[in-house]
Amino acid sequence: MNIIEVMRLPLSVDLSGFVHLLQRLQVPHRVSEEGEEQVLWAPDTLVADVRELYQRFPDGNADVGADLSAMAPTQPSLADQAKACKVTATVLVLCMIVAGLTSLGDNLNAISWFTFLDFRVQGDYLHFTPFAQGLAEGQWWRLVSPMLLHFGVLHLAMNGLWYWELGKRIELRQGPWLLLGLTLLFSLVSNLAQHYTSGPSLFGGLSGVLYGLLGHVWLYQWLAPNPHFNLPKGVLVMMLIWLVICLTGVVGQLGFGQIANAAHVGGLLIGCLTGLLGGALARRKLSA
Asked: What b/e sequence results for 168-204 when a residue is b if at least 16 CB atoms lie within 10 Å of its CB, and e otherwise?
């Protein structure tokens, strides 16, 4: 399923009613902003139908009856969703590949290629290479590569499910390049926050990126509402409560391992900032 451009309209045209109609019909789509225009995207197999539907109901005022229900596709398969959300799927595949290479945290030699700081094992201790030295040696990938590391099946599964849920929302609304940029930015900031808070240590996972994506969607939606970013309130509350619980140290005391709290907080803060900036810009364009 390839997502292609259906039509371009001025930003002054209100597409909210028509977008709501597409949602009622369960038609995969997204709307992006390019300069002074808004672009409607949909699967290539439905382009003609979507254009015809817009000609008939540009404001979305239609009863979804028998004449329209034929347009509604079956629920997209996981493979179709992955094709439509290539960046989201690629990041998850990379995480699974790294999980296999590192034996989910058991292979220290493999892990050392993805950690924030390179290290060598001496006895029962890890000796980390200084941050500045690593950068001087050209190991710039380490600024973001810890997001691919996971320690255990549950760690990978939980992070993977949340990245799929949040990542595809952003990719469908704001495009793949924006999601890729946000993922790398949130990884960078959360990794730096964790390093400068805890010092040389072994950490990894998508958690910092996830809190960044959550903050971005949360505040972007607050300023510029859109169905793609409409998260259930319980999701936001649950993730924020989990963050507070982790900050108390209870999780570590119960034997579930140490939590990279600085990475979580750093990711959430930078995500809130990008959400505020992006949402304010989108709101300004819509009201212009």
From this structure: bbbbbbbbbebbbebbebbbbbbbbbbbeeeeebbbb
Residue with tokens 């409607």: 40
Q: What angle do CA 153, 169, 32 make, to 5 degrees?
A: 150
Q: Which of 112, 145, 190, 207 is catalytic?
A: 207
Write out pLDDT tens, residues 77-105: 778 788 888 999 999 999 999 999 999 98
Taking a C-beta distance cutoff of 8 angstroms, is the pair 211, 271 a contact? yes
Please tell me whether residue 194 adopts helix, strand or coil conformation: helix
Q: Can you tell me the distance from the alpha carbon of 135 to that of 237, in angstroms, rounded to the nearest whole number?
A: 38
Q: DSSP of 237-270, one letter per residue?
A: HHHHHHHHHHHHTHHHHTTS----HHHHHHHHHH
CA distance 78 to 84: 10
Terminal-residue alpha carbon distance, the chain = 34
pLDDT one-digit tens code per residue, 165-210: 999 989 988 889 999 999 999 999 999 999 999 989 999 999 999 9
Helices 153-174 and 176-198 sit at what angle, rounded to 10 degrees? 140
> 287 catalytic, yes or no?
no
Nearest Cα residue to 214 out of 232, 241, 246, 236? 236
Give the separation between CA 146 and CA 50, rounded to whole angstroms.
42
Highest mean pLDDT among 21-30, 152-161, 256-265: 152-161
Q: What single letter denotes the amino acid at residue 198?
A: S
Is 207 among the catalytic positions? yes
CA pair distance 7, 46, nearest whole angstrom:
12
